[in-house]
Amino acid sequence: MTSSDWPAPAKLNLFLHVVGRRSDGYHLLQTVFQFLDHGDRLDFSPTTDGRVTLEPALPGVREADNLVLRAARRLQAVTGTGLGAHIRLHKRLPMGGGLGGGSSDAATTLVALNRLWSLGLPPVELERLGLELGADVPVFVRGLASWAEGVGERLTPVELPEPWYVVLAPACHVDTGAVFADPELTRDSKPLKISDFLSGRGGNDCEAVVARRYPAVAAALDWLRRHGDGRMTGTGACVFAPCGDEAAARALLAAAPLPGFAARGCNRSPLLARLAEEDRDA
Ligand SMILES: C[C@@](CO)(OP(=O)(O)O)[C@H](O)COP(=O)(O)OP(=O)(O)OC[C@H]1O[C@@H](n2ccc(N)nc2=O)[C@H](O)[C@@H]1O
Ligand SMILES: Nc1ncnc2c1ncn2[C@@H]1O[C@H](COP(=O)(O)OP(=O)(O)O)[C@@H](O)[C@H]1O
């Protein structure tokens, strides 16, 4: 039986400061994650043969690197389950866009297969497995808008306004590693408190480096700032701006000189609602 249409929502980094560096070279961040009611979708067909397969392949991503397969195989390895699954990924989020699509796909795979394979791993264990796959995976597993520190794994849920956003997707993939390696990156932002962010402070420290390396991102930010409070998410390439309501978001999107989408900000991930539905139907 196929369990269809599991959501893997996008995230926005409402601000992103680089406040230091770990001894292994990874950068210490402060950020706020909020979800969008727009993202990828996944269908899971559990099998008894222990094989995990995925369709379709993603252009430019080797099968063994696909975070969906890596998440499913990690879950098999830690639990020793003999079950398998055929997975279909409906990709809607641009890759390397700072919307966390790959991380969200991984989180949805962990959460859905934990349920469909009846593994019973607690959420905290799924978050731990998620962190092995990527810094953004734990917040997608937990599914609550959060203030995040460390490399993004120390999470504190926050209640935020849930505006409509316009998200624009410049036609480039940003190399996250190259942004963090850039000598011009600001790495010493003074740490903020949650209250500082809630009273309007905080920007995106990666924006200047990304705008210099990718003129398409600079142009998108310029355009958005002429029409609102434009900002980049994560290490880009996508940029976003909050809008007064859905109609304003759709009007701004229609006027934009590049592709994108309009979506509502959510403090609870659509994945949590889907999981609750599964529990109700059980
Ligand atoms: C910056 C953020 C903010 O949400 O998101 P994205 O823009 O990628 O969505 C994330 O922390 C991205 O985390 P994650 O998804 O694990 O990063 P990766 O693409 O694996 O990182 C590629 C490389 O960037 C460097 N890197 C990454 C994260 C970090 N906190 N410090 C680093 O120095 C490391 O050299 C790493 O090998
Ligand atoms: N299922 C997946 N979806 C998207 N990207 C994936 C996936 N699996 C692996 N990747 C790799 O992860 C990289 C980052 O993807 P993504 O999460 O979409 O962007 P970002 O981290 O900028 O938000 C991609 O460029 C791709 O090489």
TrEMBL record:
It catalyses: 4-CDP-2-C-methyl-D-erythritol + ATP = 4-CDP-2-C-methyl-D-erythritol 2-phosphate + ADP + H(+). SUPFAM superfamilies: GHMP Kinase, C-terminal domain (SSF55060), Ribosomal protein S5 domain 2-like (SSF54211). Its EC number is 2.7.1.148. Keywords: ATP-binding, Isoprene biosynthesis, Kinase, Nucleotide-binding, Transferase. It is an enzyme of class 2 (transferase). InterPro entries: GHMP_kinase_C_dom (IPR013750), GHMP_kinase_C_sf (IPR036554), GHMP_kinase_N_dom (IPR006204), IspE (IPR004424), Ribosomal_Su5_D2-typ_SF (IPR020568), Ribsml_uS5_D2-typ_fold_subgr (IPR014721). ATP binds at P94, M95, G96, G97, G98, L99, G100, G101, G102, S103, S104. Gene3D superfamilies: 3.30.230.10, GHMP kinase, C-terminal domain. The active site is at K11, D136. GO terms for molecular function: 4-(cytidine 5'-diphospho)-2-C-methyl-D-erythritol kinase activity; ATP binding. The keyword Hydrolase does not apply. One of its GO terms (biological process) is isopentenyl diphosphate biosynthetic process, methylerythritol 4-phosphate pathway. Pathway: Isoprenoid biosynthesis; isopentenyl diphosphate biosynthesis via DXP pathway; isopentenyl diphosphate from 1-deoxy-D-xylulose 5-phosphate: step 3/6. Residues 66-143 form the GHMP kinase N-terminal domain. Residues 197-255 form the GHMP kinase C-terminal domain. Catalyzes the phosphorylation of the position 2 hydroxy group of 4-diphosphocytidyl-2C-methyl-D-erythritol. Belongs to the GHMP kinase family. IspE subfamily. This is 4-diphosphocytidyl-2-C-methyl-D-erythritol kinase. It comes from Thioalbus denitrificans.
